[in-house]
Amino acid sequence: VTDEDLKALEEIDGVESVMPAYSADLLVDTPEGDTVVTRIHSLPDGELDSSREDWLNQFTLVEGRLPEGEGECVVEAGSALAGNPAKIGDKLTVSADNKDPEDTLACMTYEVVGVVESSYYFSYEREPASVGSGSVGMVLYVRSENFDLDVYTDLYLSVSGAAELEAPGEAYESLVQTVSDRIEEISGAQCALRLEEVRADAQAELDDGWAEYNDAKAEADAEFADARTELDDGWAELADGQREL
What we know:
By secondary structure, the protein is an alpha+beta fold. The protein has helices at about 5-10, 170-245; strands at about 15-20, 25-30, 35-45, 60-65, 70-75, 90-95, 110-115, 140-145, 155-160.
């Protein structure tokens, strides 16, 4: 999801607020020596104030405090159900078994500063993961600056008037579906824009590669020509010396 996608969604009739986010499934090493399949979510930018209307899906702080800077995290309380709980003060390290984790995260070690309960996870059944055992064993929340991605991986939005309706309910479902249909209508155009952006970036990278190759080839050709000239001069000098001898 790009910034252009966010702008397009904000302009849709019925969309109240939009919150972009990052998430990633990674293997994380605990102080006890365990390697746990972990889902890492980003928190919204700025001050984490519960009064913020643009902070969707707010959680409840059970213990400790919220992250204040890079390298700090809170752990979701339900993580204890997986048998690999992390407690406040623990240092959690992104495992070396991950493939290129630096392409996703800017920080590889996090200190647990709090425990939270989240509406993302209210089931005893753990969600499937894209790494490791295939099942999420621990859930962490970090500030967004800990992610090093050029696009968002997740996006949450609220629908105007939906909070006042009973959910699930016919009126609620109808209202949300209407806005969902409007989002679906622009999805093709937004995907096309993203495709062109990716193609343009790839073409620019290819062009830079060819330019670098051509510069190196021209330099090598010039050096070869100089060497050829020097060699020819040497042979001529040798022939002159033989005739003189």
